[in-house]
Design brief:
4 strands; 2 domains; Alpha-Beta Plaits; alpha+beta; four-stranded antiparallel beta sheet
């Protein structure tokens, strides 16, 4: 009879105690984090709805002048580049997307110079042209050939929204 009750006790522990221990040590924190994530996501969605309700989307500031497709960005930054002794190694503009009367222009800008000069040039670009957004910046050392000195190059990817030409 004693063995029968021992087996029932072990079964009861397996059915009731183990799930409580597992919940307490591992699942409770995960579920709490999930509930926290859901509440923050709902709060952010509500804030975005309120923000769009307060102001209508107006792209006139960013679409005033397209600087990327024809390289006008380089013309406008030429004096800053000369002042900082930064050399434009390459610039590749392309149209990334067209939708709903708007276009997304992307440009890959490759600059060469000293680190401080490159950082100052990037800062000046961000400050002067708020419509042009830098989405990626990559600094690397580069050597033309074996005997050439090392050069620091900044590869910038910039984007700008524009109105579709009709």
């Amino acid at each position: 009879m004693d063995k029968k009750y021992t087996a029932i006790g072990k079964l009861g522990a397996l059915i009731f105690v183990v799930p409580v221990v597992v919940w307490g040590f591992s699942l409770r924190k995960t579920v709490d984090l999930w509930h926290n994530y859901v509440s923050v996501r709902e709060r952010l969605e509500q804030m975005q709805v309120e923000e769009w309700g307060q102001r209508s989307p107006d792209f006139s500031d960013t679409c005033r002048e397209l600087l990327l497709p024809d390289g006008r960005l380089l013309e406008k930054m030429a004096t800053d580049f000369r002042k900082e002794k930064v050399v434009v190694v390459g610039f590749t503009p392309f149209l990334s997307q067209e939708e709903s009367g708007f276009t997304l222009h992307t440009g890959e800008l490759l600059l060469s110079g000293g680190y401080i000069s490159l950082v100052r040039s990037v800062y000046e670009l961000e400050k002067r042209f708020s419509a042009v957004k830098i989405i990626s910046a990559d600094f690397r050392l580069y050597r033309e050939n074996r005997n050439a000195p090392l050069q620091l190059r900044a590869n910038l990817t910039v984007m700008q929204w524009g109105k579709k030409d009709k």
